[in-house]
Amino acid sequence: MLRLITIVFALIYPLLQAQAVEAEVAIIVNPKANLDLSNEDIQKLFMAKQAFLPNGEKATIVSIDSSSALFEEFCAKVVNKGSRQFLSYWSRLIFTGKAAPMITASSNQDIKELVAKNLNYIGFISAADLDETVKAVKTY
Questions:
Q1: CA angle 126, 131, 132 (to 5 degrees)
Q2: Digit-coded pLDDT (tens) for 21-74
Q3: Which pLDDT tens digit goes with each residue over 84-126?
Q4: Bridge partner residues of 138 (DSSP)
Q5: CA 71/CA 44 separation, integer angstroms
Q6: What is the pLDDT of residue 34?
Q7: What are the E-state strand segments in 1-120?
Q8: Contact criterion met (CB below 8 Å) for 115 and 6
Q9: 48: phi > 0 → left, psi -120 to 50 → alpha, else beta; which?
Q10: What 3-state class would DSSP assign to 56?
């Protein structure tokens, strides 16, 4: 019996480890925007504490749907908050008129398309989905 448990554990353990692997989050902008952003700039933009990009353009935030695992990763790695805490924070900002709602997209591809078409958009995608249509300013 102990041998059977050991064999089952040996087969299941790698699967559990694979699920624990975290995806890299890439902060993206339009490649023509010519932006260099520090970690502090990125955090301030996504927390609506800074409304303008370093080039003077008003920033528009693009986020993936909050039910996504990537959204969880973004919250933990970039803004150092849980996803519920981050969403609650944004709800308060919107309710009090201190920020406009983020644009929400359903996929990495949708985010890339939006950012590629707009110089003042900033968003995040999985680093595995990067291509020449957008520029990664940081990866986490």
A1: 145
A2: 468 999 999 999 989 899 999 999 999 999 999 989 999 999 999 999 999 999
A3: 999 999 999 999 999 999 999 999 999 999 999 999 999 999 9
A4: 27
A5: 17
A6: 87
A7: 25-29, 60-64, 103-105
A8: no
A9: left
A10: coil
